């Protein structure tokens, strides 16, 4: 009798557990990113060798641009350089090592000297015109005034605006005079103070026309701050979708209750057969 009562109690307990529907929950997340296409358009004219930035403007700009690219793993990045003319140093790519290698190898004198801002911007816009990205950005950095090239900077800005390209412009150079290396006929180099001449009105026009801002960097710290601000403004879109799956766990308890019930009935039959 005690065994039968115990078995029936266990069956009831197991059935109550089944009615409670024990479950396990499995959660997962699917992360999708929508990157931004960014072309860096950097001035590599001889004036970028001025040493108001250390060791000079060009190397300081390359270093800060490298830090900026390293912080944007989901974006495609390209590199355009310009002086008296312009060319694509690296097309848009997600392989940032290629872009960083190209930045590291930059030096003044690779192309005819001068400052063709319009050509640099037009080349950068051309690299982005076939992009299917929803966000297209040019970061144009220069330390001078447009004095070369067959494309007017304002015309290039209008082209960029028509392609929905945002052009952040950065003027690089201290206020007043900057030390610039001059080589004499005997091959000796000395520093000479040269007036810093940046066409800020033009750079501001280009940025405003495309819906963003112009920045002036007078030292390395300010240049870093500018790139940090652009980084915040141009956030990569990240979407996270959550999925939850439930697995029912009542079946083992139901099976155990059924087996105990069968065992209890068999036990009843044995007891009845033993009765006189």
What does this structure look like?
This protein has 276 residues and is an alpha/beta fold. It has one domain: Rossmann fold, CATH 3.40.50.410. The chain is 40% helix and 29% strand. It contains 8 helices and 10 strands. The protein has helices at residues 2-19, 57-70, 96-104, 117-128, 153-162, 200-209, 220-233, 251-274, and strands at residues 23-34, 37-43, 76-82, 86-93, 136-142, 165-172, 177-183, 189-195, 214-217, 237-248. The strands form 3 sheets. A 6-stranded mixed sheet has the order 4-3-2-5-6-9, sandwiched between helices. A two-stranded antiparallel sheet has the order 1-10. A two-stranded antiparallel ribbon has the order 7-8. β7 and β8 form a beta hairpin. α1 (2-19) packs antiparallel against α8 (251-274), α2 runs parallel beside α7 (220-233) and α5 (153-162) runs parallel beside α6. The protein is rod-shaped and about 120 Å long. The two termini are 17 Å apart.
**CATH C-level class:** Alpha Beta
Shape: rod-shaped
Query: What is the share of helical residues?
Result: 40-55%
Largest sheet: 6 strands, mixed
Category from helices, strands and their pairing: alpha/beta
Number of domains: 1
Enumerate the strands of the largest sheet in spatial order, edge to edge or round the barrel.
4-3-2-5-6-9
What is the radius of gyration? Answer: 35 Å
- Secondary-structure element string: HEEHEEHHEHEEEHEHEH
State mean pLDDT (0 to 100 scale): 86
Q: Helix count?
A: 8
Query: What CATH architecture do you see?
Result: 3-Layer(aba) Sandwich
Q: Write down how many β-strands occur, each being a DSSP E stretch of 2 or more residues.
A: 10
Runs with pLDDT <50, length 5+? Answer: none
Strand fraction band?
Answer: 25-35%
């Amino acid at each position: 009798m005690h065994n039968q009562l115990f078995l029936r109690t266990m069956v009831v307990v197991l059935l109550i557990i089944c009615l409670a529907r024990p479950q396990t929950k499995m959660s997962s997340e699917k992360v999708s990113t929508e990157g931004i296409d960014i072309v860096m358009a950097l001035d590599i004219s001889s004036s970028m060798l001025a040493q108001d930035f250390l060791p000079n403007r060009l190397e300081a700009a390359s270093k800060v641009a490298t830090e900026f690219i390293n912080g944007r793993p989901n974006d495609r990045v390209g590199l355009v350089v310009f002086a008296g003319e312009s060319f694509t140093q690296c097309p848009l790519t997600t392989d940032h090592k290629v872009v960083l290698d190209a930045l590291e190898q930059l030096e003044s004198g690779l192309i005819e000297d001068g400052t063709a801002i319009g050509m640099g911007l037009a080349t950068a816009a051309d690299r982005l015109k076939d992009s299917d990205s929803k966000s297209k950005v040019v970061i144009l950095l220069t330390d001078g005034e447009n004095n070369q090239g067959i494309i007017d900077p304002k015309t290039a800005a209008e082209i960029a605006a028509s392609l929905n390209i945002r052009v952040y412009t950065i003027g690089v150079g201290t206020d007043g005079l900057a030390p610039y290396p001059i080589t004499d006929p005997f091959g000796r180099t000395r520093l000479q103070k040269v007036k810093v001449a940046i066409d800020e009105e033009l750079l501001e026009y280009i940025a405003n026309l495309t819906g963003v801002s112009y920045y002036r960097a007078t030292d390395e710290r300010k240049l870093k701050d500018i790139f940090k601000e652009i980084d915040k403004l141009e956030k990569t879109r990240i979407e996270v979708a959550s999925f939850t799956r439930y697995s029912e766990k009542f079946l083992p308890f139901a099976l155990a209750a059924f087996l105990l019930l069968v065992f209890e009935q068999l036990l009843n039959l044995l007891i009845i057969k033993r009765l006189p």
